[in-house]
Amino acid sequence: MYTIRQPKKILFGLNSCQSFDFPDNSLLITSSGTKSRGWIDYLKLKNYEIFDFVEPNPSMDTVERILSEHNYDYDSVIGLGGGSSLDVAKYVGYKLKKKKILIPTTFGSGSEVTRISVLKVNGAKRSFHNDELLSDISIIDPFFIKNAPFTIIKNSAIDACAQCTEAYDSKLANPYTKFLCKKAFDILEKALLENKLEDLAYGAMISGLGFGNSSTTLGHALSYVFSNEGISHGHALAFTTMVSHNFNNSEFYDRFKNLVQKLDFSPIILKQNLDDAAQLIQLDRKHLDYNPKNVSNEDIVKLLKKINENKIF
User: Fold this and answer.
1) In the chain, N or C terminus with fewer CB closer than 10 Å?
2) Distance CA 225, CA 280 (A)
3) Which residue, among 307, 165, 130, has the nearest Cα to 236 in the 3D structure?
4) pTM score, two decimals?
5) How many whole angstroms from its chain centre is CA 244?
6) What CA–CA distance (Å, rounded) separates 242 from 313?
7) Which of 234, 220, 46 is closest to 116 using CA atoms?
8) What is the per-residue pLDDT across 56-96, written as a single tens digit (0 to 9) for each?
9) Across the beta sheet with 48-51, what order do the strands follow?
10) What tens-digit pLDDT sequence spans the chain (313 residues)?
11) Domains, the chain, ordered by start
12) Phi-psi region for residue 9, left (φ > 0), alpha (ψ -120 to 50) or beta?
């Protein structure tokens, strides 16, 4: 028996945000720069408060700051931004027990449709899994990809590609998630190869529904130690998922590698001692327990060394 979890309502399509009647009395959670980009004006919000200090790879401290500074009785919590803003917003909404409305502006994390929030605790990334983190309403509007820097686009897109391909191979995969994950990768790959970037929003949403009902695996477990050193999540995944697909004999290895090469990601290096990093990675059982192959400390060190030496193509 399989269980499928997804938001109560998903709205999708160009300008879908402007077709939605946002509730009054909301707390908007986002990052700096949102105002200057005109995104808040685009939403046409009424009677809201804003917290716009969400950082990349956000911490639980940010959640606690919001809860202490914004303790008014809001009708809803709105998350606007990339995965970092959405992860914070859904956790705050969960703690406040308020309606959660999530709007991605980058299309890769899939956070708008998952029951997962990734936050740093004591300096290390930790993923929280809870049905109450699911949004009440997710609005996926390709409008936000307009004029986005290509660095953000490619990092977000490779994140979505990593998620759906890892989840396809996961031990938790089922016929529903495999269908969604394969479909998502087909859409994302075509969008990137044919420069139809508006389709990334659709592909990332389907990827989120797929991996959110199974699990990402080794690639994500490896990525967090790089993120802890300041490397963006998508950039790290370009390499950690690629070496993981090779290790797992994934059917997506060649296609994923082709996208990494096309998108021209610069090499990454982990400064941390590799043996120490391997021991930290082994603690991430939420990813490693569902990897299609067992992974030893020695395996992890070899994979990290491949990445550090840029011996992956």
Assistant:
1) N
2) 8
3) 307
4) 0.92
5) 18
6) 9
7) 220
8) 989 999 999 999 999 888 999 999 999 999 999 999 999 99
9) 9-12, 137-140, 99-104, 76-81, 26-29, 48-51
10) 889 999 999 999 999 999 999 999 999 999 998 988 999 999 999 899 999 999 998 999 999 999 999 988 899 999 999 999 999 999 999 999 999 999 999 999 999 999 999 999 998 888 899 999 999 999 999 999 988 899 999 999 999 999 999 999 999 999 999 999 999 999 999 999 999 999 999 999 999 999 999 999 999 999 999 999 999 999 999 999 999 999 999 999 999 999 999 999 999 999 999 999 999 999 999 999 999 999 999 999 999 999 999 887 7
11) 9-145 (3.40.50.1970), 150-308 (1.20.1090.10)
12) beta
Half-sphere exposure of 169 (CA within 13 A, CB side): 29
Question: Two tokens at 220?
Answer: 């994500």
Tokens standing for 306?
A: 């491949």
As a three-state string, the secondary structure of the chain is: CCCCCCCCEEEECCCHHHHCCCCCCEEEECCCCCCCCCHHHHHCCCCEEEECCCCCCCEHHHHHHHHHHCCCCCCEEEEEECHHHHHHHHHHHHHHCCEEEEEECCCCCCHHHCCEEEEEECCEEEEEECHHHCCCEEEECHHHHCCCCHHHHHHHHHHHHHHHHHHHHCCCCCHHHHHHHHHHHHHHHHHHHCCCHHHHHHHHHHHHHHHCCCCCCHHHHHHHHHHCCCCCHHHHHHHHHHHHHHHHCCCCHHHHHHHHHHHCCCCCCCCCCHHHHHHHHHCCHHHHCCCCCCCCHHHHHHHHHHHHCCCCC
